[in-house]
Amino acid sequence: MTSLSHAQALSVAQEAVLLLGRWAGASPSIPTATADSKAVTQAKDLLKWPQDSRSNLEQQVKPLRLLFDDVNLSNGQGSKNHYWPVGYIKDHDSYPPIPYPQPNADDLDPIKPPIQQAIASLQPDEWNNLSLLMLILEKFGSYVSFGEQDNVSLLDLTRTTAAVAAALANQPDAKCLTLIAGDLSGIQKFIYTISSDGALKSLRARSFYLELVTQEVVEQLLSALDLPRTNVIYAGGGNLYLLAPGDEGTIVQNKIAQVRDRFNEWLRKTFQGKIFLALDCLPFATEDVGTPEFAKAWEKATKKLAGQKSRKFQSQISELVKPKPAYEPCRVCYRDDLPLPSLEPLNNQEADSCLACWMCRTMFDLGAKLFKVEAIARSKQSTIKGAQDRLSIGGTFYYLFEEWKTANAIANEDSTLFLVNDWTLEPYRTGNAVPLLLGNYGQRCPESGPDHAQPQFMNAREMAAAAQGIKRVASLRMDVDNLGKIFAKGLGSNQTLPPLAGLSRQMSYFFKVYLNSLAKNRQDNLPAKAKTLSDDSRQNLLFIYAGGDDLFVSGTWNEVVEFAFDIYQSFRAYTGYNTDITLSGGISIDGAKFPLYQAAEASGDSEKAAKNNGRDSLGLFEQVFKWDEWLGSTSPSVADSDARECLKSAEYPPILGIFPLIEQLEKQQIETNYARSFVRSLLATAQMQDQMIKEMENKRKTLIHEKEPKQYIDYYEKEIKHDIRYYLHLPRMAYTLARLPQRVREHPEFAPVRKSLNNPYNAPYFRAIATWLELLNRSQSQSND
Ligand SMILES: [Zn+2]
Predict the structure, then answer these.
(1) Pairing state of beta strands 344-345 and 355-356?
(2) pLDDT score for 707
(3) Distance, CA 196 to ligand 1 centroid (Å)?
C-alpha cells in the first residue's frame, strides 16, 4: 500500500479512528501523524468534514438521525424524526441484532468503553492497515454521526471523504471526477433457468458465484485504476459504483474499457453470451460530490449502462455469429456447444445422475460445500498449497476455506482474503483481509448431523416434510419499491455523495446483514408490536439470494409465508415507517419436486402483480392485496378505496383483514372435521362470488361492445357488481357459520369473528382466508392427493 491514492484514503481513515478514539477517551497516537495533503484538504472541504473537529469532539460526535426520515417522494415523513439506537457490532456477531429507529436519541456513553478497548489494542504498524481501520469504523461508526449533517454516519463520511481524496491524489485541483457504474445482465437466466436434482443448493451456489464475479470486476477495476477499496460506493448482486479520478485524456475510460472487454471475453467463453458486463463511466464536476448534482450524475451513469446492454457483445459479435456445431445439451442448463465427452454425471454418488457440463457440475459441488465457508482467498496463482475448492473467475482464482485461520496461514501476500460476515478484529490484523457481507442464512439439513463430516443445507424434500398442513415448499421474491426514484430524488437538497452512500449502505445492510438475523433469531429481531401467526422460530429457510434491495428465499411453505410478513414489518420499522419506502413481494407455493425455475418464475409473476397493484403489496395464493389488507388493522383506512366508497353505510367490522381472521380462526380450535367442512364451504362461497363477478364483468364488456347507453353500463358496474362483491356471500356465510359446533359458536371470543366474516368489508378477502386455512389444516394423507 504505497501508492499516493492509498495514502490519501489511509490518512482520512486514520484521522477518523483517531477522533473516535479520543472522543471515547482512549489516547491513541498515529506513529507518523502528518498534516493533511492538498487532496485530503480538498475532499474534506467538499464533503463538509468539520473544520475544528480535533478540538471540539463532544459537539461533533452525535447520535445518528435516521436518513430514511428525509426521503420524500410523494408522502414522506412530514416532520417526524427518528434516531438509531446507540450500539455497535460485536465481535463474533455474524448475525448482529437489527437496530430499530426510535423517536428519541440515546446517550452515547455506553459505547465508549468498547471503542477505547478496540482502538487501544492497535499496534503501531496496524495504523497503516486501511482495511482494519475501516472495519473499526464500520463496527463503531455506523450508527453515530459526525459533523453538521446529523444523518450521515461517521463511517459514511469517512469512506466518501477517503474516496474523494484518493480520486484527487494525483491532481488535487482536478475539476472533474469520474463515476464508474457497472451491471451484470443475464444473472436471472444463469441462476434460475436450471432444472436438476439438488437444484435448491445449486441455485444458491450460482448466486454465490455471481457475487464473487461482481467482486472480481471490482477488484480488477481497483487494481487497473490503482484505487483503494474506499472508492467502492456500492457493489453487490451484479451492480457496482466506484469513484475514480477525473479523466483529462481518456486514460480512465480506456482502462475501464480494457477491464470490460477482457471480462466480457471471459463471460462469453464461460456462459455462451448469457451473462454480459455493462461497464461505463461518467465525468462530473468535482464540486458536485457535495451538491445534489451528484444524484444526477449517479442517475446518468446508470442510464448509460442501458445503452451498452442494448449493444451487448458488440465487440465480440463476429465471434458470436460464427457457425458452431451443436452437440448433446447439458441436462441442467441446456448449453449445447460442448462435445459429448465433456459432459459427465452431475452427481458422482448416484448411478442414474444426468449428464451435465463442467459449470453445472462445479455449481452442484459448490452447493454442497457452501454451508461452511468462512473465508475466500483471491489469488492470481493457479495453486495454493493446502487449499482446495478453487473457482476460476475472470482469469483469477478464488479458494474457499472453512476456517479463516487456515486461509490466513495459506494465503500469500498477493492474495486478498474475503471474510464472510466476520466482524471480529483479529483476522483483519494481518494479511489483506476484507469483509464480505452476504445474505446467506440457510437451515442445516438435520440428516447431516452435528458430527457429520460435511454439513449441508436442507433440501426441498426435507423442507416440505417440515411444513404445517400441506407438505409444500414456497419461493419468496421481494424488492424495494421505487428504489431508482429514491436514489435519484428521494433526498431532495440533501442528495450529496455522503448521504447517498449512507442510504445505499443502510438499504443493503438490511438485505445482506439484518435479514440473516431475522431468519436465524426471529424473536430477538422482530420489531415491537409485530403481528405473528405463530411463535414458531420458522428457521426452515434457505436464502438463494439476499442483497442490494431484493431477495429470493425458499423454504417450508408456512414458514416462508410467515417470514414474508416478518420481513415487511421489520423493513417498515427499520425505515422509520416512511410511507415512501415500501416493499412488494410474491410467493409461489409448490410441491418439493416442482421445477425450481418455474417456481422462480411464478413467484416473480406474483411479485409483478404486487407492483401492478400500486406497489406496497404482496401476491400470495394467486391473490394480490396491499400489505395493510393482509396484515389487517382496526382502522377503516385499510380497506381499499373501492370498498370504502361502496360500503359507506355498512358497519365497520371488529376485525378487518386476512391475517387477523386467520389468527382468530386458528385460535378457536375448531375440531378437525368441522374445520375441514367450514373451510371447504368458505372456499366454495369465495369461488361462487368470483364466478359471479366474472360473469358480470363479461356482461358489462358485451354491453360496452354493443354500445348500450352509458347509464345501463354504469348500473352493472356499480350496483350489481358491488352487490355481488360485498353482499352475495352473506346467506351462505350465515349457513356455514351456523353449522359450526355450538361450543365454538357460543364462545364469547367467537362473536367478533362471526361478525367480521359476515361483514361486507371482509368479502374481498374470503378466498385468501379460505385458501390459507385450507393449506394449514390439510392433513398428511390428503397432502398426497
Ligand atoms: Zn450445464
Answers:
(1) antiparallel
(2) 85
(3) 10
